[in-house]
Amino acid sequence: MRASKGVAVVTGAGRGLGAATARELGRRGYHVIVNYRSNAATARAVVDDIHANGGTATSFAADVCAETEVAALVEAVMTEHGRIDVLVCNANTVTPNFVPLASLAWEDFIGKVTGELAGAFFITKSVLGVMRHGGRIVYISSTAADYVGSGRTSHGTAKSALTTFGGHVAAEAAPLGIAVNTVSPGAVMTEASADRISGDRLKMVTDNSILGRVMQPDDVATVIGLLTDQGMSAVTGAVLRVDAGFGVLVGGPSS
Asked: b/e per residue, 169-189, with b = 16+ CB within 10 A?
């Protein structure tokens, strides 16, 4: 089966939101490049799921914080397919240390910030050189960029920087006919977040969500998929909050 819409690269697509996004884009007719850093088995499972649902996909190992590995990824995709139509920057390159500032080491803080930006910088720069008119780039930020709170200093600062980066890329990509947007999810229940979204915190999130529940990866992946539609070309440089209405009632942080 041949993909009808072109080629989509999703970074960090072996699990969680990245995996859900890869599956969504596969359903939408893209050939999906399931990028992963080290867990080949989970990436292979995502590829198999896409195939089982009538789509096409391949997996590719690359650390998106390493410029040479990113170059190899983009070169391989262009050699095989001759195009990249969608890029979703989702990879969680550095797990933040959720501790108060007094306990936060500079190395942990700057590591999270630079890791977050490196994961978007190298692949964006490389893909912009080959992406055609009508291309789409989506960055995955977080509502942590909007709210302050104890323990979120490195995570919130990193996501704020990524959101700002996305706006600058949107301005540079506009003359190329490429739309660039940022999706800013609230609390999403994934393998990586399950230990933090439990007990009292889970109750707080659900009690203060208009929908009365915590989000699942598919909730966010659907929005990402919509942003790849050609009819969405006028939406660029936007930051779309996807948080199940959390904060509308009380104005508090959700991630």
From this structure: bbeebeeeebbbbbbbbbbbb
Classified by CATH at the fold level, domain 6-242 comes out as Rossmann fold (3.40.50)
Is residue 127 within 8 Å of residue 170, measured between CB atoms? no
Summarised one tens digit per residue, pLDDT across range 35-49 is: 999 999 999 999 999
Both tokens of 228, joined, read 């790849």
Name the nearest CA neighbour of 32 among 5, 52, 69, 61: 5
112-113-115-119 Cα dihedral, nearest 10 degrees: 130
State the number of CA atoms in the 13 A half-sphere of 7 facing the CB.
Answer: 20
Q: In 10 A of CB 87, how many CB atoms? A: 27
pTM score: 0.91
Residue spans of the domains in the chain: they are 6-242
What distance in Å separates the CA atoms of residue 103 and residue 212, rounded to the nearest whole number?
34
